Amino acid sequence: MAADDLLAHDHEHDHAHDHARADAHSHDGGDSHGHGPGGHSHGLVHESIKRSREGLRAVGLALLVLGATAIAQLLVFIASGSVALLADLIHNFGDAATAIPLAIAFALRSARAERWAGLAVVFAIFASACVAGYEAIDRLLNPHEPEYLVALALAGAVGFAGNWWAAIIRTRAGRRLNSPALVADGAHARADAYVSLAVIASAAAVAVGADIADPLIGLGITLVILKITLDSWRTVRAAPVGGSAAA
Asked: For 137-152, b where at least 16 C-beta lie within 10 A, e where not — what string?
């Protein structure tokens, strides 16, 4: 090889080597303010934290919707005295209350806590069925004609809309987060939406003179709630135990 060619080759090799060292230094310098000891911080949030936040957001929004729905129905019940509406109202308050154990489970980011929250949901559904059934039987033994039927029908419509909206929120989040407890609560709310339609049927029945229909519909709602209890129990029981909620 000629001397000129050799010098040119050495110059190109040294230039490339220096350039590579400069690039490496530049990358290391960039990492010093963006990467942590683990190598990839860049402001990223751990998946378990993101899951916890999204779960809490879904639970909180559903609680807000169901709480507003139950309060609106409570005002109508005070005026109308409908036991069918009372059954739906009790269930909606109980449904809203299930947000508490679910929120705790997501805050803890624990699959075991989430399972216990699911069991709490099942218990809340069963308790509301017992109360609704008692009120319906009491109304059969001590008849009382509901009043303000138009408002009663509107309350049923409000219950349907509120539960349907809450069901969408819970089900979508539950599937996205792979949370059996949240999915079960979503199915619970969806069934409640259809139960609320029974309140409208009660108002219509009483309007045409079938007063006995109101407590009978209340009993029918109780049976539906018991069916929801069984379905929710099966869903939660099938969920795995142990590990983190993000697993």
From this structure: eebeeeeeebebbebb
> Comparing 115-129, 166-180, 227-241, which segment has the lowest mean pLDDT?
227-241
* Fold adopted by 48-237: Alpha-lytic protease prodomain-like (1.20.1510)
Q: Which residues make Cβ contacts (< 8 Å) with residue 205, sequence separation at least 6?
A: 213, 214, 217
Q: What is the pTM of this model?
A: 0.62
Please identify which residue in the block is written with the tokens 């729905």. 69
Residues 6+ apart with CB under 8 A from 210: none
Ramachandran angles phi, psi of 214, nearest 5°:
-60, -55
157's CB contacts (< 8 A; 6+ apart) are 196, 200
Comparing 34-48, 100-114, 179-193, which segment has the lowest mean pLDDT?
Answer: 34-48
C-alpha span between 186 and 164 (Å, rounded): 9
